[in-house]
Amino acid sequence: MLKEFRDFIAKGNVMDLAVGIIIGAAFTAIVASLVADLINPIIGLIIGGIDFSNMYVVLKGHVDPGTSLKAARDAGNAVFAYGSFISAVINFLIIAFVVFMLVKGVNKLKDAAVKKGEAAPADAPKGPTQEELLTQIRDALVKR
Question: Which value, to the nearest 10 degrees, does the dihedral of the CA atoms of residues 43, 47, 53, 55 take?
Fold first, then answer.
């Protein structure tokens, strides 16, 4: 059983998946920083300095105006944090767009490599077709 597990882990697909997950986690951290540190402040400037992360409605309890979301939660109040949801949607859309552009670029590189690979064999001398080889084998068997 241990040998089967080792063979399973050593397969290329499992290793490729592990590398993809690790790179994906690092990539997500980069994009999250891009959104939080660069894009959200720009969006905030465009719409009048609004910070989405501190937008909430108190469902139960009392919160003084201007209290941060963290402070409101820490005080034990029930809050409806719609600003966090808006930030999560913006993060998702940006990450999805960046991944789309990345996949599009990789596919373009693959297509270029395939076209290059197809051009090389066309220049190579042509060998016999499958039918010609089968005919030669048949003729050789008949002569015996």
Answer: -160
Q: What is the CATH number of domain 2-137?
A: 1.10.1200.120
Cα 40 to Cα 32: distance, rounded to the nearest angstrom? 10
In this prediction the pTM is 0.53
CA atoms within 13 A on the CB side of 129: 3
Choice between 120 and 24, residue whose per-residue pLDDT is larger: 24
* Number of residues that make up the chain: 144
- Give the count of beta carbons closer than 10 Å to the beta carbon of residue 132: 10
Say if CB 56 and CB 68 are below 8 A apart.
no
Terminal-to-terminal C-alpha distance of the chain: 52
Tens digit of pLDDT for each residue in 33-69?
A: 887 788 777 877 887 766 677 788 888 888 888 788 8
**How far is residue 125's CA from residue 56's CA, in Å, rounded to a whole number?**
72
Ranges of each domain in the chain: 2-137
Beta strands in the chain (DSSP E): 57-60, 78-80
